[in-house]
Write a structure and sequence with these properties.
Layout lengths: L7 H25 L4 H14 L21 H14 L8 H32 L11 H33 L2 E3 L7 H15 L6 E2 L14 E8 L10 E5 L7 E3 L9 E5 H7 L9 E12 L13 H12 L4 E7 L4 H10 L7 E4 L11 H4 L23 H7 L2 E5 L5 H12 L3 E8 L7 H11 L3 E6 L7 H14 L2 E3 L6 E2 L3 E8 L2 E9 L11 E8 L2 H15 L11 E3 L3 H14 L5 E6 L5 H12 L3 E6 L16 E6 L4 E2 L3 E4 L6 E5 L5 H5 L1 E8 L1 H16 L4 E4 L5 E3 L11 H9 L2
Helix pairs in contact: 1-2, 2-3, 2-5, 3-4, 3-5, 4-5, 12-13, 13-14, 16-17
Length: 741
């Protein structure tokens, strides 16, 4: 679809086309999903947001035509909407449905902090740029506003009309002020006087007290006042910032309640006692609001002399970036909303009126405040083969390569490899990349132990892992204090590769052991994300990993690798070559790719060309996808599905059939511009039984008919469900059954 900005007639025609798509997608969704009446209505409404572009008719064969590409930001929103859908899925436990609803808020926060902030900056400074879809940033912003307003309204409706009532049925109560008993009020008053009032600093607005700088995503209240204070001031307005140190949910003592778990919101306490913060004055109204700011860290790489020092200086500014979104209680008077918009230099389009707490993500604390095990997924123990229980993991890897599929299989062997290396007197050196690991983790503990024991420990830490910068700075300091050599990679290229290299002296020669993964070295996320871990003593792989570390820590020309492919040098071109090879096989060609995002135009065009040659292309793309499947003459041989379930799908796998001699690679890289062209990434081949196992996993995901969503050429998604008489298949549940206990 080619947008013509400022032409009303074209806009009207586009709107009509979009409406037709929405109606069709909604009818299809209603037919295909057996939901309760209320949930069906909600699902139909969600389709209105998911279908963001009209069907493409009579498309040209120019594979660069904008009609062939879905907008990146709008596709990103569609993923978030699919997450929100899980809150209505009654096959999930109730507490998990609430968590999905809250994750939607968390995802949306980051979307505004980064993606919307970038679009607003483009428009503000007159440096608009368009992607392959050719949508102008203002058009994208308009659609984001429409979609987000509809989905946020729907989110609160689900919370208030579905989740809260069902929690009530489970004896989990959120007590409103009007329902507080006298005994509860007295306890809450004491709590306010002892825990809240001493740390709250209400700010009256007058010429000597201008509007305060409010922290990104903080809870605040705007208060209408009547009367004069002790100094004779009568500005009429005040701001109450809620300290971040205070919990947003407070559990009432059981002896003050009639049973069950009883909770109140901090916002309710501040509302109740707002007048006591302004003695002698009358509070006419108190309304909560929240501001979201630009949280992206930017700096001129040519001016950077010390990356760590530069980041430390930038981290504070993240809290006070330009405002990008205002969330307010829907009961807030319009004059106060206009006042806030002026203060934050925003307009009505950036305003979200909500029916409930404005900071929903803080409700995740509920899990720790109530006994809700029966409302959560049943705990599981990741599987672990007996071979890893042998005394020496190096003996295991000398016998054959190992592949682990997390979280279904334990992450412990990866940690054990490092632990044993730290203690083994035969180990001389350890090299490791860290992206999102955390300061206190088993991995870091082992690296610290190795460094303190005198081994040569080199760690490449990516300081710019978004929202983990501060943690990574602390991590770097801890490792340096232990004696490890810490480097920060390459300034203009994030180090996203997941690599570990252990150098061990065996029988008078040096042997390299390597670990390569699709996910981070984090034991916590290894229980929540699906990822592959590959461990090997293969000499060629070890040498390749060594060369990549050389590139990261030293300087020199591109080094030729024997088995691995690495971005930004060879991975992208190798993917193009392998797609083109499948295209030569025509109808005998077969490509399966499982990734988190597909946005890189050259790869998309190569897939289109392969489809035109008859190649069967099956894509499993969890999040953003610019490619349009199912377009006659261009992509009718391409299918795209997204898996949303208990675990966050995170594996990156590339399968190329090659007429019965398949190539199978796992990687740290998605098929996105940043991964292929602006990051340090690795792609590692698997052969034999390991390759067969990965292909079997891919087939299982392709057979999933309960947690998978199909992408259509109009940009809409439809939830798959079994045909009549067909067995229900959930890839994640099947894998849990195979490995977990």
């Amino acid at each position: 679809m080619t947008e013509q900005i400022n032409k009303q007639a074209d806009d009207a025609a586009t709107d009509q086309a979009v409406l037709e798509v929405i109606e069709g997608a909604a009818e299809q969704a209603t037919e295909q999903r057996d939901l309760s009446s209320e949930a069906s209505i909600a699902l139909v409404e969600s389709r209105e947001a998911i279908a963001v572009t009209e069907p493409v008719e009579e498309l040209p064969l120019d594979l660069k035509a904008p009609e062939l590409y879905i907008n990146r930001e709008l596709s990103h929103l569609q993923f978030n909407i699919r997450v929100l859908e899980q809150a209505l899925d009654e096959s999930h436990p109730l507490m998990e449905r609430l968590m999905f609803l809250l994750i939607f808020s968390s995802n949306l926060d980051e979307f505004f902090e980064i993606r919307v902030a970038e679009l607003m900056a483009q428009l503000k400074y007159g440096r608009e740029s368009v992607g392959p879809d050719a949508l102008h940033p203002q058009v994208v912003m308009n659609r984001i506003g429409e979609i987000c307003n509809a989905q946020v309204e729907r989110q609160y409706k689900i919370l208030n009309e579905t989740i809260f009532p069902q929690l009530e049925n489970e004896n989990i109560h959120f007590q409103r002020r009007r329902d507080w008993t006298n005994e509860q009020k007295e306890w809450i008053r004491v709590f306010f006087e002892e825990k809240v009032q001493p740390v709250v600093s209400p700010i009256g607005l007058d010429p000597s007290h201008p509007f305060p700088r409010l922290v990104n995503k903080s809870l605040n209240f705007i208060v209408e006042l009547d009367g004069k204070d002790a100094f004779g001031r009568e500005s009429g307005l005040a701001i109450i910032p809620a300290p971040r140190s205070l919990p947003r949910l407070i559990r009432l003592p059981d002896n003050l309640c009639d049973g069950g778990d009883n909770l109140i919101f901090l916002s309710s306490i501040i509302h109740e006692f707002a007048d006591e913060m302004f003695p002698g004055m009358k509070v006419e109204g108190c309304y909560q609001f929240r501001i979201t700011r630009n949280a992206d860290l930017t700096f001129d790489s040519e001016e950077v002399e010390d990356l760590a020092r530069t980041l430390r200086g930038e981290l504070h500014s993240r809290k006070y970036g330009a405002a990008v979104r205002l969330e307010v209680d829907k009961r807030t008077p319009e004059n106060l909303i206009r006042f806030l918009l002026r203060e934050f230099s925003l307009d009505e389009a950036h305003t979200y009126r909500v029916d409930g707490p404005v900071n929903l993500t803080r409700m995740m604390a509920l899990r720790d405040l109530v006994d809700c095990k029966h409302l959560c997924w049943k705990p599981f123990t990741p599987g672990m083969s007996g071979r890893y229980k042998q005394k020496n993991i190096f003996d295991v890897l000398r016998q054959k390569d190992q592949l682990l599929h997390h979280p279904f299989e334990s992450f412990s062997p990866v940690v054990d490899l490092l632990r044993q290396a730290a203690k083994d007197p035969k180990v001389l050196a350890i090299k490791q990349t860290l992206y999102r690991t955390g300061v206190n983790s088993d991995i870091v503990d082992a690296l610290v132990d190795a460094a303190r024991s005198g081994k040569e420990v080199t760690v490449v830490i990516e300081l710019r892992a978004r929202f983990d910068e501060e943690s990574n700075l602390q991590l770097a300091s801890r490792l340096q204090e232990a004696g490890a050599l810490v480097v920060y990679g390459v300034v203009d290229f994030k180090t996203h590769a997941k690599m570990m290299l252990v150098v061990r002296r065996e029988e008078g020669k040096l042997v390299r052991y390597a670990h390569l993964g699709t996910g981070n070295y984090h034991s916590g996320t290894a229980r929540l994300y699906t990822d592959y871990s590959y461990m090997t003593s293969d000499a060629d792989v070890g040498e390749d990993v060594h060369k990549i570390f050389q590139q990261l820590t030293g300087m020199g020309k591109i080094l030729r690798l024997k088995k691995l492919h690495n971005a930004p040098f060879t991975l992208h071109s190798r993917m193009i070559e392998m797609i083109e090879r499948e295209a030569k096989h025509g109808k005998h060609g077969h490509i399966i790719v499982k990734i988190n995002g597909l946005t890189e135009p050259q790869l998309i065009r190569a897939l289109y060309q392969a489809s035109q040659k008859g190649v069967k292309i099956e894509l499993i793309v969890r999040g953003m996808c610019r490619l349009r499947p199912g377009i006659e003459g261009i992509s009718e041989n391409i299918s795209v599905r997204s898996i949303i379930g208990r675990f966050l799908e995170h594996t990156r796998v590339y399968y190329f059939g090659n007429k019965g001699k398949p190539d199978v690679l796992c990687s740290s890289a998605d098929w996105m511009e940043r991964n292929m062209l602006n990051r340090v990434e690795t792609g590692f081949p698997l052969t034999g039984k390991l390759a067969e196992r990965v292909k079997s996993d891919l087939d299982l995901y392709l057979a999933d008919n309960s947690r998978s969503w199909m992408l259509h050429s109009d940009g809409s998604y439809t939830l798959n469900k079994p045909e009549e008489g067909e067995e229900l298949v959930s890839a994640q549940e099947t894998l849990l059954g195979q490995f977990g206990s």
